[in-house]
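Supplementary Text 2. Reproducibility record for the structural model of the 391-residue chain.

All settings were left at their defaults, and a single model was retained for analysis rather than an ensemble. We include the record here because the model underlies the residue-level annotations in Supplementary Table 4.
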Amino acid sequence: MTQETYYIHDTETDSLVGGIIETAHIEVTPSKVGFIQELCNSGIQIEPGATETHGYTQYDVEGKKDFSSTKSYKILKEASQSGAWYVAHNAFFDLEKLRDHGIVWREDRIIDTLKVAQVLLKKSYMKSFKLQVLRFALDLDRHPDWETKMAKLGLTEIVPHTALSDVFVLWFFLDWLKETFNLTDQDLNRITYEPNLVETIEFGKEFEHGTKIPDMLYTVYNKRGSMGYEYLDWALGNMDMVKSDADKEGSFVKYLAEGIVEGKIKKLQHNNTRRVVMQAMAISLKGEHFKMAKEYLRYKNPENLIKKSIKKIQGDVEDMLKTRASLLEEMKGIKVDFKNLFPNKQEQEVIDRKQEITKTLEKLSKDIKKFNFQSGRLAVRLEKLLTTGEL
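Retained model, structure tokens:
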């Protein structure tokens, strides 16, 4: 039996950007295994597209409590402050929903099994890393322990996209990952916050899609004699599809940082990108990276650098969360009759406003996820620095 405590969690929501309508978690402690599942009413209409995924309609949540008034909320709130592990598949999505209700988990106690799967199974034949795809591809339900674990929770069948069934598969997959790859919880946490290295160019017109990035870094690609690393530098500063993607951004920064350390890159055109690269070097595991960063930016104390960066990022996240909370509150007042296929002008204006809010919320969610990823990576580095004295 494990000596750690885990909360293996999943939510179902009214839409991709809205609130929680179902929550389920398995609690695994050194002495017991238990679960809780509850339906909630977010106050926002359930989108038909969401119903297609999880099967819940507005009728199912009528009269249900808001998540903040549930037993699950109280348990997860206390657990987030206890040092327990939080495990979810696409964890930053669920963590964003929890944060809407004031639940914030320690970054060094979070495991995102989706991110871990994307990294560890990257070179496999797998093209999708959805939880149920992994279940069938890896034959998890044929494992000797499958039925034993189902019996512990009193489950008789698995129904995909219902929160309790999903957390059961997630619990099993977590143990499979640790057993198959001989990894600790700390290993999985580290992978959660490391960029999933992007190895090829799959965007833009300057390079053939599929070109390996190490092959293009020091290649001249236009009549001005520009080098490939200058293109990455430009993309980091100008392309939204790069700036909003933590994996792309983290990967490009890594390539540029390594080029500077190796002496192959002497100058970057964009000052902001250059500073990001230096900061990335300062918090990396390589001591020479921090030394190089000190020479460029005159940082004397890595602990202060990391704390300052975390504070700045968390401030930006708080501002975005306030905007998100305001928009979600407005969404609660918008009611659309989905059966009315031909709305009049006034009804169409309401629909248009809802779509506008949804679009803004989608962008906010991407930015919050990216910033939380960055903040989490810094926090994990800081914890290592404070406990071991090493970066």
